[in-house]
Amino acid sequence: MRRMILVASTFLVAAFLTVSSAQAQSTEASATITPAASGHGRGLGVGAMTMLNGFDGALVTWGSAGGGFHVDGFFGLRHYTAGASTTPFSIGGRFWYHVHAATFADFSLGGGLGLLHYDTNPGNPNNDSRLDLALQVGAQIRAFIVPNVALLADLGLGVRFGPTDNLVIGGQSVGGGGGGNSFVSGTLGIAYFFE
């Protein structure tokens, strides 16, 4: 009789633990990981971004239907007067191949190039007009805070060619005060997708 009670008790405990474990697994939120398709960031999107070395502007982005890559285009136009009238205009593009994707994020490798045109004192004989070129190679992380809004962060190698050539490895570069050297500082971009 004792043996029968022990066997029955063991069976009931095992059955209870199995049912509890199965129920817990069905209610847990699991992050599905696919090779390179999160399901977010597809189609057309708009936002704001910064390249390594400081080129920034309004962002137009497009993600492929299969989720394997996305491309960014950007443009920026400013006008300010700080002793001299200055108008910088930037334009560029980047390509990102999705290496890994999870439910609410993806990790991409790629790069791009940007052009920045400065025009200081237009129409003045002492006009300072120049064209800078920026190249970027590295990685981008997109973190989706909701299915169609992503925060963007870039890391990698940025090179800027122009009168003040510079090289950045790491996060975005922000120029030092008074025309000093650049230093590394992280900034974020943001994109809204119409998916």
What coarse outline follows from CA principal-axis ratios? elongated
CATH architecture: Beta Barrel
Q: What is the CATH level 1 assignment?
A: Mainly Beta
CATH topology category name: Porin
Question: How many β-strands, per DSSP?
Answer: 12
Summarize the structure.
By secondary structure, this protein is mainly beta. It is built from one helix and twelve strands. About 21% of the residues have low confidence.
What is the fold's blueprint, element by element?
Layout: H1 2-27, E1 43-50, E2 56-63, E3 69-77, E4 80-81, E5 85-102, E6 105-120, E7 128-146, E8 149-161, E9 166-170, E10 173-175, E11 182-184, E12 189-193
Antiparallel strand pairs: 1-2, 1-12, 2-3, 3-5, 4-5, 5-6, 6-7, 7-8, 8-9, 8-12, 10-11
Task: Tell me what the structure shows.
This protein has 195 residues and is mainly beta. The chain has a single domain (43-193), classed as Porin. Helix content is 13%, strand content 56%. It has one helix at 2-27; strands at residues 43-50, 56-63, 69-77, 80-81, 85-102, 105-120, 128-146, 149-161, 166-170, 173-175, 182-184, 189-193. The strands form two sheets. An eight-stranded antiparallel β-barrel has the order 1-2-3-5-6-7-8-12. Strands 10-11 form a two-stranded antiparallel ribbon. The radius of gyration is 26 Å and the shape is elongated.
What characteristics describe this protein?
single chain; 195 residues; mainly beta; Porin; two-stranded antiparallel ribbon; 13% helix; 56% strand; elongated
